[in-house]
Amino acid sequence: xxxxxxxxxxxxxxxxxxxxxxxxxxxxxxxxxxxxxxxxxxxxxxxxxxxxxxxxxxxxxxxxxxxxxxxxxxxxxxxxxxxxxxxxxxxxxxxxxxxxxxxxxxxxxxxxxxxxxxxxxxxxxxxx
Length: 128
What we know:
Order of helices and strands: HHHHHH
Number of strands: 0
Structural class: mainly alpha
Distance between the termini: 40 Å
Radius of gyration: 15 Å
Largest sheet: none
Mean pLDDT: 94
Helix content: over 70%
Shape: globular
């Protein structure tokens, strides 16, 4: 859709040009990119936006904004598609682990449990 393409364009322009402070640019860019993400077919681009969602979530968590953090993390996870643990293990570990933490902080224990099960079933070692 034209609207989705516009969201992607705005998000990429804001992030590339950093027209605002880096923190504001991150949140605005990720918000716009997420709105247009349904149109993205290229795996590398989906992974790039998933990483930006992780950055936005970590910044949100540092500000004790756990609801937006959980949103960004869910968006990042959804961008990776099916069976991402094989190709993007470290990113998955960060996204799912951080998502479990954010959901714990907002009292979404069922969601947290699901995220932790995903980590436990895909972890390569006890340290993960």
